[in-house]
Amino acid sequence: MKREAPFHVSRRTFLRHCSIAAAAAGVPAWFVERNLSGATPETNPPGPNDRPGVALVGCGGMGRGDASNATRFGDIVAVCDVDKKHAQQAAKQFTKNGKTPDIFSDFRKVMERKDIQIVICATPDHWHTLVNMAATKAGKDVYGEKPLTLTIDEGKRLVSAVRKHKTILQTGSQQRSDPRFRLACELARNGRLGQLKTITVWLPAGLREGPFQPAPVPAELDWDFWLGQAPRVEYVPQRCHVNFRFWYDYSGGTMTDWGAHHNDIARWAIGLEGPTNVEGKALESPIPGGYTAISDYEVKFTWANGVTQTIRTTKADTISGAVQDPDGQRNGLRLEGTNGWLWVNRGSLKASDEDLIKTPLPDSAERLYKSDDHMANFFECVRSRKPPICEAEVGHRSASICHLGVIALRTGEKLTWDPKQEKFTHDHAKAANAYVTREMRKPYDYSFI
């Protein structure tokens, strides 16, 4: 393909474009200018027929959203779900030019397809690891929804598998591809706030409901397969689909749901693998016979560099992050140092003094991985074989912070954590270390894949 000669853009026009882009992104023009001026054109741009085959495993709302996003770069050729209605809805949505994606109920069949290069995993959390490992073993690249795993041990296993098979895995913690969060972290990492002292993370509170009653299993749902590695229980509608997040058998409540986003950004700002101490307290106890994940809580981490990180829940936002109380506390992060503070969430970036944001960082400042489009970054890395912004180790380490918070809440103890060995090291650590892994119900254990 013949390449057109580059056209000249005046400095004035370039800066005007930077100002427009900055206003749209909610970041200062100097930040946009620096990123644009340092950008390099793609050396091997994709051609019109360079569209990999994509399979969607887990066809709920999040999965269909991810797959729709991926159709900018690839073609959905297969969909898979243990709920036939979800699979049929997805197949209908991604029918293109009269061709309907093939429907599967067993994700292992998807991995056998030679025309599938990419797997999007958007199952409930307790299935993430086995689906991602199966795809990795089959040599397929993965876009895996967050949190990457259900336990810390699963993360260690998945990172090892990705490295062994040299596959590309992008964790769906898309806030790393938001310039607001990247700028906040760069400012913190480069000392703009002075010495970083505290980070406060606000997460939406979870659901506290129950007790629930068993019901007949819907004809379209393979309930045993949906449960998978989790203990066998009677079907309860509130356990399935969206609300699986509030049962510890399948997830970790909002600590792992929203926490997989905001705790990831906190870790990015701090720049370390993980904290050294954690303690938590439940502010409300679960209702017997209802959701098991603690809905309202406070967790405190201490990091090796002295930073303290506190996680608190807010009832001013819904479980999806929508505003419930306009005068209440929004979800997001407050980064505070000796020279001031920053507040960042998906809608804003604010500071105790606007100059903390408006004053450019020096050219010698540390720059973080730049991505302004999470799905595009994934497909670019599929082509280049370079690590994506939220590769497996990143997703594992950030999910581990969430898991540590859940373990502190469940044990009620002050815990000491070794982020290098990835185990608890305090006295009486046996109970806490028992939560680092989980017993998998057969046949849905690692031998299943």
What is the fold's blueprint, element by element?
Blueprint lengths: L10 H15 L3 H9 L15 E5 L3 H10 L4 E6 L3 H10 L8 E3 L2 H5 L6 E4 L6 H10 L3 E4 L7 H14 L3 E3 L7 H11 L6 E9 L18 H5 L26 H4 L1 H12 L6 E6 L14 E6 L5 E7 L17 E6 L2 E5 L4 E3 L3 H4 L15 H11 L7 H20 L3 E4 L4 E2 L5 H4 L16
Parallel strand pairs: 1-2, 1-4, 2-3, 4-5, 5-6, 7-10
Antiparallel strand pairs: 7-11, 8-9, 8-14, 9-10, 11-12, 12-13, 14-15
Descriptive report:
- The chain is globular.
- The chain has 15 helices and 15 strands.
- Strand 1, helix 3 and strand 2 form a beta-alpha-beta unit.
- Helix 1 packs across helix 2, helix 8 runs parallel beside helix 11 and helix 11 (259-270) crosses helix 14.
- The protein is of the alpha/beta class and 449 residues long.
- The strands form two sheets. Strands 13-12-11-7-10-9-8-14-15 form a nine-stranded mixed sheet. A six-stranded parallel sheet has the order 3-2-1-4-5-6, sandwiched between helices.
